[in-house]
Specification:
Shape of chain B: elongated
Strand order of the largest sheet of chain B: 6-5-4-7-8-9-10
Structural class of chain A: alpha/beta
CATH superfamily of the largest domain in chain B: NAD(P)-binding Rossmann-like Domain
Low-confidence stretches of chain B: 12-16
Radius of gyration of chain B: 21 Å
Strand content of chain B: 5-15%
Distance between the termini of chain A: 22 Å
Mean pLDDT of chain B: 92
Largest sheet of chain B: 7 strands, parallel
Number of strands of chain B: 10
Family (chain A): Belongs to the D-isomer specific 2-hydroxyacid dehydrogenase family.
CATH superfamily of the largest domain in chain A: NAD(P)-binding Rossmann-like Domain
CATH topology of the largest domain in chain B: Rossmann fold
Helix content of chain A: 25-40%
Low-confidence stretches of chain A: none
Keywords (chain A): NAD, NADP, Oxidoreductase
Helix content of chain B: 25-40%
CATH class of the largest domain in chain A: Alpha Beta
Number of helices of chain A: 12
Radius of gyration of chain A: 22 Å
Oligomer: heterodimer
Structural class of chain B: alpha/beta
CATH class of the largest domain in chain B: Alpha Beta
Largest interface: A-B, 58 and 55 residues
Order of helices and strands of chain A: EHEHEHEHEHHHEHEEHEHEHEEH
Number of strands of chain A: 12
Shape of chain A: globular
GO molecular function, one term (chain A): NAD binding
Largest sheet of chain A: 7 strands, parallel
Pfam families (chain A): 2-Hacid_dh, 2-Hacid_dh_C
GO cellular component, one term (chain A): cytosol
Number of helices of chain B: 11
Chain lengths: 316, 300
């Protein structure tokens, strides 16, 4: 399989890089200086048949156009908004992602962020570390999590995993997506605004597309209300971020737990001083166990492609 | 308040006085019931001054601050917060488990101090789903922790004084063996003479270098100086702590550790829990004065 030349866009995972290097002919994009990338690509263009992409390190039209021998884009992610799918379709390039393996991690983090936001766990941690427990006495009361109505946007794999978890906390589950499904225990709402109006906690768990961009806008935040909490473990652009910041600052929204942001790694600085938010740096699938499983899927898809076997997790 | 009853309490201005000196100065001496809020010690001496005392109502679940042996001798009944705190305590325990494994508090601090743009991707966390969780004490709180973490796909086993035939989880006869068979050890048992320092160095060594300890019970369940050393030496991987041995003092060595989550004994501090406790105290008092069975008696 050494004949397959694979372009890796970013040193995203040491195990993945090591195994790509062992099993294929690995070309590291970052071996070239940033201003020499176009020339580097031209020099390797005829050899590169596979690209391993990653959110933030995109396989967009320009890259695909520069690689005439490209046959497959294997993304080290479940979301593939960073891959130009129409272009790939047009060129007959296969695309794979890494679904399922990060479902549990993202669902775990969603629930963890919801509990942390309602019970203000990082705030308690800051309070104790600053020595304020002794100096100022008891930390303020927080809000119960059990029994809160949880509204999930997108009841796909991750949304369902979140639903299973919060049911164990006696939380009624509501959901919105384009089509109603046959879940006897979950209540469907035909719009995000209605979902938000009937939920205490709103979780964004859908894929990012043109239809879901800014799916949480000012109107949705108003419906969620001053006691409502928004959890985003999807993608930053799902939420109108300037509107979110002003809703939080003005107290029109109760709180938020955010793993993703519109312009990562930049986070609006006005969030840094808010006590009603929990901010984490896009770590949804960032566990040792899951990164290895994702890497194994990328490698398995590339090997299947070389051996002309069915791809393990094809998107196209 | 039923007719014929009266209620007295120490006044804020007299808080500097000891309980017993206050009792000598005001008309507590006819009290039949004593309500303790938070965790002041209810000693044999205090109860000795109250010759009519028949009932101690604790606003907490744990009653380690009440001299239960003295109550037993005197035939004084004791009630606790029963199940009023159970959901919040279990939620908080799960929140601490996730926060400790995923380093949520440290990650929040990382973002807030503006380190993400230059620091790049945050160090990988440890997975929650599928972890082996050992629960010490499968009472109202422990059983709720078990049910919640089972929904995360965690394999739950437990230790308690005796096996619970109705529990769907595996019973492990010693805390050391439970720790050895677990990735996460959660403490949700009462503090008694038997459970004081139930987590010692041997238990932490059994839990291991990737193991995480979560304590929502009482600080005294853990040998705290040993815990600090075990964290410093990497004997265990991390901790989520809501309680400490001498609150509000927290060992300052913990303040610089990224693998611990610290909290100020807040697991049950929600308006819902407090309302539930007040209702339970009122229900116990009604039952007591009506000569009916108490709602949440503590076994003496």
């Amino acid at each position: 399989m050494e004949s397959l030349s694979v372009l890796l866009l970013h040193p995203v995972n040491a195990y993945l890089e090591q195994e790509l290097d062992r099993r294929f002919r690995l070309i590291r994009l970052w071996d070239s200086p940033p201003d020499g990338r176009a020339e580097f690509l031209r020099a390797n263009a005829s050899a590169i048949r596979a690209v391993v992409a990653y959110p933030g390190y995109s396989a967009l039209a320009a890259l695909i156009d520069a690689l005439p021998s490209l046959e497959i884009v294997a993304s080290f992610s479940v979301g593939i908004d960073h891959v130009d799918l129409p272009k790939c379709r047009e060129r007959g390039i296969r695309v794979t992602n890494t679904p399922d393996v990060l479902t549990d991690d993202v669902a775990d983090l969603a629930v963890g962020l919801a509990i942390a936001a309602l019970r203000r766990i990082p705030q308690a941690d800051r309070f104790v570390r600053a020595g304020l427990w002794k100096a100022k006495g008891d930390y303020a009361l927080t809000t119960r999590f059990s029994g809160k109505r949880v509204g999930i946007i997108g009841l796909g794999r991750i949304g369902l995993a979140i639903a299973t978890r919060v049911e164990a906390f006696d939380c009624p589950v509501n959901y919105y997506q384009r089509t109603k499904k046959d879940y006897p225990n979950y209540t469907y709402y035909p719009s995000v605004v209605e979902l938000a109006a009937n939920s205490d906690i709103l979780v964004v768990a859908c894929l990012l597309s043109e239809q879901t961009r800014h799916i949480v806008n000012r109107e949705v935040m108003e419906a969620l209300g001053p006691k409502g909490v928004l959890i985003n473990i999807g993608r930053g652009p799902h939420v109108d971020e300037p509107e979110l910041v002003s809703a939080l600052v003005e107290g029109r929204l109760g709180g938020a737990g955010l793993d993703v942001f519109e312009d990562e790694p930049d986070v609006p600085e006005s969030l840094f001083t808010l006590d009603n938010v929990v901010l984490v740096p896009h770590m949804g699938s960032g566990t040792h166990e899951t990164r290895k499983a994702m890497a194994d899927l990328v490698l398995g898809n590339l090997e299947a492609h070389v051996l002309k076997k069915p791809l393990l997790t094809p998107v196209i | 308040m039923p007719p014929g009853l009266s209620c007295s309490w120490p006044t804020p201005s007299s808080r500097s006085l000891s309980w017993t000196s206050q009792l000598a100065t005001v008309s507590f001496l006819s009290a039949r019931a004593l309500l303790t809020v938070e965790l002041p010690a209810v000693t044999a001496e205090l109860m000795g001054a109250l010759s009519k005392l028949e009932l101690v109502l604790a606003s907490s679940v744990g009653v380690d601050h009440v001299d239960l042996a003295a109550c037993r001798r005197r035939g004084i009944a004791v009630t606790n917060a029963g199940g009023a705190f159970s959901d919040d305590a279990a939620d908080y325990a799960v929140g601490l488990v996730i926060a400790a494994l995923c380093r949520v508090a440290a990650a929040d601090a990382y973002v807030r101090r503006g380190s993400w743009p230059d620091g790049g991707d945050y160090p990988l966390a440890s997975k929650v789903s599928g972890k082996r969780v050992g629960v010490v004490g499968l009472g109202n709180i422990g059983s709720r922790i078990a049910r919640r973490l089972a929904a995360f796909g965690c394999a739950v086993s437990y230790n308690s004084r005796s096996p619970k035939p109705s529990a769907a989880y595996e019973f492990v006869p010693t805390v050391r063996d439970l720790a050895a068979a677990s990735d996460v050890l959660v403490l949700s048992c009462a503090l008694t003479e038997e459970t004081r320092h139930v987590v010692n160095r041997e238990v932490m060594e059994a839990l291991g270098k990737d193991g995480v300890l979560v304590n929502v019970g009482r600080g005294g369940l853990v040998d705290e100086p040993e815990l600090v050393r075990c964290l410093q030496e990497g004997v265990i991987g991390g901790a989520g702590l809501d309680v400490f041995e001498s609150e509000p003092d927290v060992p300052p060595e913990l303040f610089s550790m990224d693998n611990v989550v610290l909290s100020a004994h807040r697991a049950v501090a929600t308006p819902e829990s407090i309302r539930g406790t007040i209702e339970l105290v009122a229900g116990n008092l009604d039952a007591f004065f009506a000569g009916k069975p108490l709602l949440s008696p503590v076994e003496l």
